[in-house]
Design goal:
Strand content: 15-25%
CATH architecture of the largest domain: 3-Layer(aba) Sandwich
CATH topology of the largest domain: Aldehyde Dehydrogenase, Chain A, domain 1
Radius of gyration: 24 Å
Number of helices: 15
């Protein structure tokens, strides 16, 4: 597995030093190595210095999870739920502090960071409610005097590997249901956002989580992520990240027949029909394309526009995007922050070059913002391409930055064909006043999520989240799927007849 951030750096005395959390104790990396987390709006500011964990640290963390599992699984689910609810209450009390830390560490504007934390709070409430709804099933037996049911049981120690773009929300999507189900966890956050992860784990222990139930190891993918995936004691892996790394996780974990849950990339379309409320569609496209600087797996990176409104839509979107205020996300007037690191900045700019070489028209942006006041951060101008065809790489490949493309179509049928003509299938949207067309889009768009008259971003925690095709491997997070993902089924038969009964043989 590969990493996408700058090399590790030595500790700086002015920055706070953090530790792994293993068996309830804070611990440096066994090797003593560290790396720095930096503010992407000002890379001279070090948010914190963290353990650069390796296989020895992962081995210790997994051992702690193994040891804690027999005790934790015996805690009644409603009691586990109470602890998660307490954690949510603490998160509510510290929402502003968590949001400001998030903006400093990964760059999204403060309003969005608050929303990220709120997702975690909402997930705590939702999952806590499931503590008294930990349903199995009962069904009739084909034999007399025999009871049949299905119950849910935890896997055991599970690995949670999360990305940097939602550094509170996504860990809660995974960790809360994993813990409620009775699993123990080894948590490896993205190396770009370890401070957010450390703050979350601290809250969990403050809420009363027993030692060893949730263990934190920080570091890089090939040094900490790989040994975590490979450890035979880990029974299940939940991973959100790039398709490239997700395939490695699936291959390595699959060889050991572990359950693997993957949430990977997206190349999400908004279809704008001639009959759309154009003002509403423009608001949705602007937010969907440039929210979180386009660094969302659900970002609206393809705008498929019917020709009758193409010119008006294009001109107005360029006008609105050019007025976006870019800067440090802690500043109240800023609408779009930096991208997360230098590697991502270079990747986004390479795709601008690819789009120009392919013959697309650069309508806006397409440049690194490196003059004052942007010269100490990783800023990229909001970028729009026009005259984009479905075969272009910028229309096929996930850029994960503030870049979107406008693709003209003649008909609804062509719009759906273009929308479905990528390897991904996460989120999709259509703007139309035609109810029949809206339902046809719901039925035919190849995606795990479809919005009508809303952009492709904005999932709610009580609905399943995930996609099809190369977006993942069929699993869903959040909603009613949350508990199912982190439990195994056991069929139970209770025969009270007092005699041997043989299924499919005895007939009386």
């Amino acid at each position: 597995m590969t990493t996408t951030t700058e090399p590790a750096e030595p500790a700086t005395s002015a920055a706070p030093t953090y530790h792994n959390v293993i068996a309830g104790e804070r611990a440096p990396a066994v090797s003593g190595a560290t790396f720095s987390s930096r503010n992407p709006a000002n890379h001279e500011e070090i948010v914190g210095v963290f353990p650069r964990s390796g296989p020895a640290d992962v081995t210790r963390a997994v051992a702690a999870a193994v040891e804690a599992f027999p005790r934790w699984r015996r805690v009644p689910a409603p009691a586990r739920a109470d602890l998660i609810l307490r954690a949510g209450s603490i998160m509510q009390e510290r929402k502003e502090d968590l949001a400001r830390l998030m903006t400093r560490e990964m760059g999204k504007v403060l309003e969005e960071s608050r929303g990220d934390v709120q997702e975690g709070i909402d997930m705590a409430k939702y999952i806590a409610g499931e503590g008294r709804r930990f349903f199995g099933e009962t069904m009739p037996s084909e034999l007399r005097d025999k009871f049949a049911m299905v119950i849910r049981q935890p896997f055991g120690p599970v690995a949670i590997i999360t990305p940097w773009n939602f550094p509170i929300a996504i860990p809660t999507w995974k960790i809360f249901p994993a813990l409620l189900a009775g699993n123990t966890v080894v948590f490896k956050p993205a190396e770009d956002t370890p401070a957010c992860a450390a703050a979350f784990v601290e809250i969990m222990h403050e809420a009363g989580l027993p030692s060893g139930v949730l263990n934190l190891v920080t570091g890089f993918g090939e040094e900490a992520g790989e040994p975590l995936v490979e450890d035979e004691r880990i029974r299940m892996i939940s991973f959100t990240g790039s398709g490239e790394v997700g395939r490695e996780v699936a291959a390595r974990g699959g060889r050991q027949l572990k359950k693997i849950s993957l949430e990977l990339g997206g190349k999400n379309p908004i279809i704008v029909m001639d009959d759309a409320d154009l003002g509403l569609a423009l608001e949705g496209a602007l937010w969907g394309a440039f929210g979180t600087s386009g660094q969302r797996c659900t970002a609206s990176s393809r705008l498929i526009v019917q020709r009758g409104v193409l010119d008006e839509f294009t001109a107005e979107l360029v006008k609105r995007a050019s007025a976006l205020r870019v800067g440090n996300g802690l500043e109240a007037e800023v609408q779009m922050g930096p991208v997360v690191n230098q590697t991502q900045l270079e990747r986004i700019h390479r795709y601008t070059g690819i789009g120009i070489e392919e013959g697309a028209t650069l309508l806006l942006g397409g440049r690194v913002l490196d003059d004052a006041p942007y010269d100490r951060g990783y800023f990229y101008a909001p970028t729009i391409f026009g005259h984009v065809t479905a075969d272009m790489r910028i229309a096929q490949e996930e850029i994960f930055g503030p870049t979107t493309v406008i693709m003209p179509v003649a008909t609804f049928e062509e719009a759906v064909e273009v929308a479905n003509g990528v390897k991904y299938g996460l989120s999709s949207a259509i703007y139309t006043r035609d109810i029949n067309r809206a339902f046809a889009a719901i039925e035919t768009l190849e995606a795990g999520i479809t919005y009508v008259n809303a952009p492709t971003i904005g999932a709610e925690i009580h609905l399943p989240f995930g996609g099809i095709k190369a977006t993942g491997n069929g699993h869903r997070e959040a909603g009613t799927s949350a508990i199912r993902e982190f439990t195994e089924l056991k069929s139970v038969y209770i025969d009270y007849s007092g005699r041997l009964q043989r299924a499919q043989i005895d007939t009386e």
